[in-house]
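Design request, tokens follow.
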């Protein structure tokens, strides 16, 4: 079975947030094998991706009044989230160039988001800000007990609105909300934290998804959401329960670990902080004496510290066979021999994406130099348990990740980290 492992290094998060983060990520089980990759709209809405549409369809969100704030970390989400102030000008606008108009394609739809409500009613996400037709409207409404419920309204393409689905939700904590409409059987569904909470059967008819969308505020009727929203995804189909749970923890939506020190998460999920200085091996092929690949990073002192030295990643180096490419914090790439055959590099705005394939395994590295952030993914089986470095061996057991180059497993972070310093490098 092919497996996906993700490392996310973030070098600027406050250490105290780590405790709440660990609790947050255990909210419900998921299996990254099923993580869907076919979203027709995908706004991670966090520190790394901000308002970008990561589906590749170009519907980047905007903050028309500049009254929605990116907060990082945000109540345990180390990547951060956007905070809505609960007033008419605090909203995000999502253009629709037709990419997520599912009425023209499958006619089925899945919409999901992470939400942290402060306590008042208000819209989470809905089509058509002018409220002519709402297609799918996710809102928090006051229930009969004076608390909040999650309510979804479906509007058909001809303007007919059907009975909404509602279910209770928690306050002042994160919950994941998924809404689906299956056009094949005319069923609507609501999932909270990966569990089906409500469903209903409706008369046939496609939804009015031809409009742009908005989050956080509505004028008709007047309602404004107060709290955090992040990781909005739209699919032009219904997802399985396993896909819902995996999509909730999509690599572009989550990151873990404290900030200020370079904080790493091994390929098996072990979190630790290490203050290195100079070049270190993150991960390499340890299946034989002649390593086929190696990924290293350069840790250098931060500019905004005084009393104590703190470091961050300022460059990454990918070596495959005889090829090598270094990308600095300005995303400028330097190639060892002037050309690359095995390593592919693509520049996407402030990001550099490097990828290569060996045996049955594809490796992908995403580097955002100005933010000193990177993530590493691999899909394949051959190198599982055959890698080594600061990121461990990817054998599924986090307990043996602190293995030095000589094969000895240690407990001390500094001893482990310094053992992977690249010899002969000048910094």
């Amino acid at each position: 079975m092919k497996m996906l492992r993700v490392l996310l290094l973030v070098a600027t998060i406050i250490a105290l947030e780590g405790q709440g983060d660990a609790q947050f990520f255990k909210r419900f089980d998921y299996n990254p094998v099923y993580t869907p990759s076919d979203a027709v709209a995908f706004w991670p809405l966090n520190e790394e991706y901000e308002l970008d549409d990561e589906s590749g369809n170009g519907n980047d969100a905007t903050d028309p009044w500049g009254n929605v704030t990116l907060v990082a970390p945000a109540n345990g989400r180390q990547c951060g989230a956007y905070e809505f102030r609960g007033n008419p000008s605090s909203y995000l606008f999502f253009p629709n160039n037709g990419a997520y108009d599912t009425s023209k394609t499958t006619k089925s739809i899945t919409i999901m988001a992470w939400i942290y409500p402060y306590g008042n009613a208000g819209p989470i996400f809905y089509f058509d800000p002018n409220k002519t037709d709402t297609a799918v409207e996710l809102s928090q409404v006051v229930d009969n007990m004076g608390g909040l419920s999650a309510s979804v309204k479906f509007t058909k393409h001809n303007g007919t609105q059907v009975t909404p689905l509602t279910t209770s939700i928690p306050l002042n904590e994160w919950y994941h909300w998924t809404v689906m409409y299956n056009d094949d059987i005319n069923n609507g569904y609501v999932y909270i934290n990966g569990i089906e909470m409500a469903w209903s059967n409706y008369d046939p008819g496609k939804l009015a998804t031809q409009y742009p969308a908005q989050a956080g505020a509505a004028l008709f009727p007047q309602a404004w959401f107060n709290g955090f929203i992040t990781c909005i995804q739209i699919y032009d189909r219904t997802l399985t329960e396993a896909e819902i749970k995996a999509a909730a923890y999509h690599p572009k939506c989550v990151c873990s670990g404290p900030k200020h020190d370079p904080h790493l998460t091994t390929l098996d999920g072990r979190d630790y902080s290490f203050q290195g200085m100079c070049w270190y091996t993150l991960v390499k092929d340890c299946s034989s004496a002649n390593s086929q690949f190696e990924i290293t990073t350069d840790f250098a002192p931060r500019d905004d510290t005084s009393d104590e030295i703190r470091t961050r990643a300022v460059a990454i180096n990918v070596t495959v066979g005889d090829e090598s490419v270094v990308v600095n914090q300005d995303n400028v790439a330097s190639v060892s021999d002037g050309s690359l055959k095995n390593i592919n590099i693509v520049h996407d705005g402030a990001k550099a994406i490097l990828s290569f394939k060996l045996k049955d395994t594809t490796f992908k590295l995403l580097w955002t130099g100005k933010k000193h952030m990177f993530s590493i993914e691999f899909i394949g089986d051959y190198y599982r348990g055959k890698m080594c470095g600061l990121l461990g061996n990817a054998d599924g057991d986090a307990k043996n990740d602190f293995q030095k180059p000589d094969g000895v497993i240690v407990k001390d972070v500094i001893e482990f980290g310094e053992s992977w310093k690249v010899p002969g490098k000048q910094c």
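Comment from the thread starter after seeing the answer: thanks! The chain has two domains: 26-248, 263-419.
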